[in-house]
Amino acid sequence: SSLFLFHCPLCLYSSAGYGPLCSGKKSRQVNVGPHLLIEVVGEERLHSARGEFGVRDAVKSPLNAIPRQLTFKNVTFNLRGVVGFVPPLRDSDIGHYRGYAIRRDGSWEIYDDLRDKVMNVDGSVDVNLHIILYTL
After folding, report:
1. Cα(109)–Cα(5) distance, rounded to whole angstroms?
2. d(Cα 8, Cα 49) in Å, to the nearest integer?
3. Quick check: helix, strand or coil at residue 63?
């Protein structure tokens, strides 16, 4: 997981408070580990009489069917989240993306800018997969 370290450049005081020479300004150092980002691409094909192309045959899966762990080059990565795509209802629309995060207890949350707040979502819900994110 990411480690957030706060320090004062003047007195090197930690995030617990201000040091004797500290102006109250803090900087943040973020250490992130390797991640594995998988882009899932459906079949691109003609989908309108006007000759427009687009991804219409998405790869759909229940959230709980996505492997929780994946080993790549002898390193085991843990599932962190998914980006799902909601296809457009009309050819003139562009569709919409939603983020799904898996919590430590195995529950899922949906992040959708069309909603007022983060919501819990059942792991059996089908999602048109666009991106799957794994980290250490």
Report:
1. 27
2. 62
3. helix
Q: Are residues 28 and 68 in the same domain?
A: no
CA-CA distance, 135 to 25, in Å (whole number)?
31
Give 55's strand partners: 44
Contact 65, 108 (CB under 8 A): no
pLDDT at 11: 56
Tell me the mean pLDDT per 10 residues along the chain, length 136: 50 53 61 85 58 62 96 93 85 84 95 91 94 94
Note whether 27 and 40 are same-domain residues.
Answer: no
Looking at residue 2, its pLDDT comes to 44
Under DSSP, is residue 53 helix (H, G, I), strand (E, B) or coil? strand
The number of domains in the chain is 2
The whole-number pLDDT of residue 19 equals 53
> Is the same domain home to 7 and 55?
no
Tokens 């007022």 sit on residue: 116
The closest alpha carbon to 60, from 132, 129, 136, 125, belongs to 129
- Cα torsion 41, 42, 46, 50: sign: negative
Tokens matching residue 36: 């594995």
